């Protein structure tokens, strides 16, 4: 199963995964039109993008992503989670806190595996 996941992940271009700190224009360029967009309170806006087998939930605050969730219909594998964390680490390094939580050195980003299908990263 890990081999199949590795092949699947390695065949997806890095552009499948948004990055923390990107603005709406960068996300639109990466994914195309959002499936859903909502303007919220306190300058927090939400967009739902779909790319490949993933749904990417992006919360924008001050014009850039400050929280994002990755979901898919089947369970996220450890390999997929590692890949998502890799493209979202910026210059920092992730460290695992427990079975479902990661934090970058310095504590700027936190990632939580909410269930078998969802990984959320936030500032």
Description:
The structure is a single chain. With 123 residues, this protein is of the alpha+beta class. The protein is built from three helices and eight strands; from the N terminus they run ααββββαββββ. It has an eight-stranded antiparallel sheet with strand order 1-2-3-4-8-7-6-5, with helices on one face. The N and C termini lie far apart (32 Å). Residues 4-16 have low confidence and may be disordered.
Rg, Cα atoms, Å: 14 Å
Task: Give the count of helical stretches.
Answer: 3
Q: Kindly state the mean pLDDT as a whole number? A: 85
**Total beta strands:** 8
For this entry, give a set of tags.
alpha+beta, 123 residues, single chain
Task: Please write out the topology.
Layout: H1 2-11, H2 24-31, E1 36-39, E2 44-51, E3 54-61, E4 64-71, H3 78-87, E5 94-98, E6 101-104, E7 110-115, E8 118-122
Antiparallel strand pairs: 1-2, 2-3, 3-4, 4-8, 5-6, 6-7, 7-8
Sum this structure up briefly:
The chain is about 25% helix and about 40% strand. It is built from three helices and eight strands, in the order ααββββαββββ. It has helices spanning about 1-10, 25-30, 80-85; strands spanning about 35-40, 45-50, 55-60, 65-70, 95-100, 100-105, 110-115, 120.
């Amino acid at each position: 199963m890990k081999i199949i996941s590795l092949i699947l992940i390695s065949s997806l271009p890095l552009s499948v995964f948004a990055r923390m700190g990107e603005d709406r224009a960068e996300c639109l360029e990466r994914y195309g039109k959002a499936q859903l967009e909502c303007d919220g309170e306190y300058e927090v806006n939400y967009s739902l993008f779909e790319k490949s087998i993933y749904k990417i939930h992006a919360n924008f605050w001050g014009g850039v992503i400050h929280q994002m969730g990755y979901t898919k219909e089947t369970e996220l594998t450890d390999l997929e989670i590692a890949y998502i964390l890799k493209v979202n680490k910026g210059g920092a390094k992730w460290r695992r806190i427990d079975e479902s939580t990661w934090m970058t050195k310095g504590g700027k980003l936190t990632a939580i595996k909410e269930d078998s299908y969802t990984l959320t990263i936030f500032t």
